[in-house]
Amino acid sequence: MGKQKRGNLLGTVGNTVYYEMWGENYVRSKPKRGSRRKSTLKQKVQQMKMSLVSPFLKKWLEVIRISFKTENPKVSGYNAARSDMLLHAIDGEYPDLKIDFSKVKMSIDPESGIQHIDALATTEQIHLDITWKDFWPKHGATLYVVCYNEDKNQHHILGPHTCSNPESIDISWDSLEKENRSYHCWAMLFQPLGTHFYGSHYFKCEVK
After folding, report:
1. Tens of pLDDT along 60-87?
2. How many CB atoms lie within 10 A of CB 106?
3. Global pTM?
4. 61-64 long-range contacts, Cβ below 8 Å, gap at least 24?
5. In CATH, 114-206 is 2.60.40.10
């Protein structure tokens, strides 16, 4: 119900709301109950994509803050990684959307320098046989490997590891139960002098 205040009407009259703010008088329509619009199909698709991408990327914040750093100070590494993943790494039709891990990037650099990786994993270590493209790791470069098990939602960041023998690398990891599990993995070179991650190379490994 509306009331008079210093000659001004304040309150609700029918579907109209009269109110005062900072000494000025305003009029607006009374909001309808339950008038919130339902999400469109496009909005639902985007919401589901975000629900897949955001929790996954937050596992790797300490890496992607550097590996996806851009020249634009207004774009964080996380936001750049999220945009790339939303655009390239979601597969399927709504509501059966899923992450295509083979298309996920862990670095904004398109060139990894790695042509192929053969991986042999045990519960104690991962052995990598790496075939390089047209360049070898520069002096001081180190290797990072990030691993993710989808079934148990487990993730590991392994590194840095010095590439003293760039063609054959053994990487130890912790003693968490990993036997008979499959991991999505990404290998990346890091050049400390320029604080730069080269592009990531995706591979899978089965822990025996």
Report:
1. 999 999 999 988 888 999 999 999 999 9
2. 25
3. 0.79
4. 62/157, 63/106, 63/144, 63/146, 63/157, 63/188, 63/197, 64/106
5. yes
